[in-house]
Every structure is written in structure tokens, then in C-alpha cells.
Amino acid sequence: MFAGLSIINICFIVSGILMLFIAWVDLRSFKVPDIPVAIIAVLGFYTRYLRQDDLLIAAGIAVVVGLFLFVLAKLFEMIRLKPVLGYGDVKLFIAAVLWLQIAQLPAFFVMTGVFGILIALIYLKKKYFPLAPAIAAAWVLTLL
After folding, report:
1. Where are the domains of the chain?
2. CA angle in degrees (0–180, nearest 5) for 118-30-65
3. Is the dihedral of CA 9, 13, 18, 24 positive or negative?
4. pLDDT truncated to tens, each residue of the chain (144 aa)?
């Protein structure tokens, strides 16, 4: 315990701050920085370990979600002849999923989609739109 907070709570706070940073960077540059994403993934995995969750299942789900998003991104890229989903967004999605229980995934997916649509509407006239803010908001709301 540190200042009345458990290690899990500290990991959540640090990851939340990193999510905000990533969202801010994505809004400004349409880039998702790798190092903060990696830290979120490690902290998520560590948190699952502290909760004595099955780490193989957590890793397996993250891999399946990542592969699904990668294939989806490639399909949309072939159909639209331009990138639709950035691979930084895929990595951030995987890192976020490492924090979540199976029962939380549907809510996370739906909220990410809804927030993503809202952001896309704001960026309607632009070539790209940042998805990291949608992922970050959905992640925080799912874990609250």
C-alpha cells in the first residue's frame, strides 16, 4: 500500500495517465507512441498476475483480438485502397484488452465503436481521424 492505494490501483492510475497522454499525442499527430503502449500492456499483465487471473487466457484473448483487428485493418485497406485503422491503434487495443476480464470485452468494444464514430463525425472532412481517444475513454469507463 502506498498512500492508501493498492499496487493495482497505482497501476491503473499510471496506465490512465498514459492513456490520456497517448490520446493527446494521437489528437495532435495521428500517431500512437509505442513505449507508453508497452508500459500499459506490461502493467495490465502485471495487474492480472496480482489478481491471480489466468495469464494464458489473458494473453490468448489479447492475441486473438490483435489478429482480428490486424486482419480487419488489412481487409479495409484492400477495399478502400488506403489505411483505415492504424497499427498503433491495434497495439493500444491489445494493451487495453490485457486489463479486461472476458465479461468486460463487449462493453469495451461497443464503447470504443460509439466513441470512434463520434470522433469520426468530428473529423468528417479529414483524411484520417484519431482512434486512441476512443480506446482510452472506453478503457477508463470499462474499468470504473
Report:
1. 7-143
2. 70
3. positive
4. 667 789 999 999 999 999 999 999 999 999 999 999 999 999 999 999 999 988 889 899 999 999 998 898 888 888 877 777 788 999 999 999 999 999 999 999 999 999 999 998 998 877 778 999 999 999 999 998
Closest CA to 108 of 60, 141, 59: 141
Q: How far apart are CA 60 and CA 44, in angstroms?
A: 14
Other beta carbons within 10 angstroms of residue 99's beta carbon come to: 23
CA angle 101, 52, 21 (to 5 degrees): 55
**What are the distances in angstroms from CA 130 to CA 39, 41, 107, 121?**
20, 20, 20, 11
Kindly report the pTM of this predicted structure: 0.89
| Distance (Å) of CA 112 to CA 28, 49, 91, 101 | 19, 25, 14, 16
Angle of CA points 102, 19, 71, to nearest 5°: 55
